[in-house]
Amino acid sequence: MWNCLPELEARFQKEVVRRTAKQFIDAKLAERDLRHRKAGESRYLVEPNIKDGKGGLRDLHTLFWIGKYYYRVSRPRELVEAGLFTADEFRRFKRAESVSFDRCHMHFLTGRPEERLSFDIQREMATRLKYLSHGGLLDVERFMKHYFLIAKEVGDLTLIVCAELEEEQAKSVTGINGLIRSIRFPVRKIAGSTDFVDDHGRINIADEKVFKRDPVNLLRIFKLADDNNLDIHPDARYLLANSLKLIDKKLRANEEANRLFLAVVTSRNGPETLLRKMNETGVLGRFIPAFGKIVAMMQFNMYHHYTVDEHLIRAVGILSAIERNLIGQDHPLSARLLPEIEDREALYIAVLIHDIAKGRREDHSIAGAKVARGLCPRLGFSKQRTDLVEWLVLEHLAMSMTAQSRDLSDRKTIETFAATVQSAERLKYLLILTVCDIRAVGPGVWNGWKGQLLRTLYHAAMPLLTGGFTEVDQKGAVAQARQDLAGALQDWDEEELKAILDLHYDPYFLSTPLENQIRHMEFLRMAKARNEQLSTMVHTKEFEAITEINVLSPDHPKLLSILAGVCAAAGANIVDAKIHTTRDGRALDTIFINREFENDRDEIERAERLCKTIRDALTGKVQLSDLQAKQPRQRRAAKAFSIQPEVAINNNLSNDFTVIEVQCLDRPGVLSDITFAIAELNLNIASAQIATFGEKAIDSFYVTDLVGDKILLEGRQRRIIDTLTEAIKSGTARIRDNMPDRAVPAK
Q: How many Cβ atoms sit within 10 Å of the Cβ of residue 278?
């Protein structure tokens, strides 16, 4: 039997392999694409699957199996003799394979065949492989950067193999099929260039000296590809990657090279694809050295889904998509403002480099502004245009942080933000940059609620920047708001209307939109008609991806803490809260939670179930301790992070309230712990802004003492800071230990 094996192998190669090589290659590549879709389309995901993901071990196996089948070799090294790899490329193949086999450490760490390099594994992997922190990068970030560079090399090798096999396949096409192919896809000259050709629908080099002869061609090829709607041929990409030494100070200072680069970045055809190719070939990082430093850089947090360079390129793609009205329906204000922007080139460059200084010891916004100051004159920008880009990079977080962590109904918030922005034109640029930045962080990070917050801040700040009004007379504003509400409810009985209007203190009218006021009045009217001391109401907002829950209850100092505890137990994420008391001793609290279901009916049912649990908790029908025992566990990935709680007290952010700012590790129940501790300190919460950035919670509470004054005594401030810090650390400040059996008397 064994004597038959050589004959079997010979017949298999002759009768099967030779006839099915193309089908086999197509099937393996289709299998690879399906695997990538399951594991994640990008090789720059911060929690990559290093076996099945893009750039992982299976991609190396696919390359070998394709080469083995087509070239009929038995060992990877024989692919060099077959001409598929050069000796250098084979060394890169073995290096990538060696790094991929480091995944064995993951199996030892977890005790199972784990292939996803998750956050809770990465730090230990970095230690095992002896990476050290250096400069502004942690040891784990250096380890992950090395991994992503290797994953990029696997992508380069894939292109090399596909190009070689494509060429072999093209040579093998004879007869009528070969004639048709040569007629349909001829090699043609490209208008205006003798150095590049249209090679079967892709831009290719005319000869191997095009870059050495004129290094500007290293940028020109991308512009020509854009102008002629051509992909870049693998042969050209290979030569690009091997000509990077030609990008020196002289080329970086070349006026034509910088003009071409700027034209690619600001292309109206969609610059994201070409920028990614420019990055993968190494041209982008060599031409903009500061960009080269953040290539494959990962930030060790749960907020960012991609490496820094991938995030920036995606941000440019989002800006282009808004401009071309591909996603304008998601960002109506940005889509309206973009055509009004006077300097779109400055905006595109600001978006491309806003995070370019990540990973340094210096604050990345400050360091990035310095990069902008050096880069923009190179691109031909005047001092005025350079100042704009520099300011945008310096303040690129200002609008996002203000919108998500400040009370936008507080006038001081708007005044402070407007003082930072200083002009209406800058505000337009900053809004669009902020939208692109947030949306490019990763899937699910952007939602309609964040868009609504940004639009609210924009519309509140614009009048201050255009001189539309100066200091608002508060009494006049309250009187106008009451008049507007009365006009909207003019069909009500006059006596009933006056009674319900008189229930509310002035801050309610200043901080609540008219649309919400109308809904609240109907809610109060219905509760009165039903003689309900405790009542709830649900309102969904589809575009904002948010659900509003109103709770009418006898006032209780720990009411918000109870609501937060119930939401935590139900897995509902609170993003904002407004607390109002009425003159008859009731509380009208509004919490905003992230929407879970796309279908309105399902979302309302979910919210109504949550409302029932809130009512049961407030009346003592269920114990919050029992609910908290069932609350979702902390995410496994979050356990990899350690964030020291930070509590700060600021009396300059609001004219009427003391603002308590808390930063800590996000975990189920932490908001309930914080708000319970605030109530125990005899503080009244007027509003709470709840923001989560991956594993980090950043919450702001606008508070007064029991008589409505700010917290000014230093000793009391210190006690607040110590108490909240301890509550966050220990998690022992639980409502179940201190709250009465019922917050609302039973009927």
A: 27
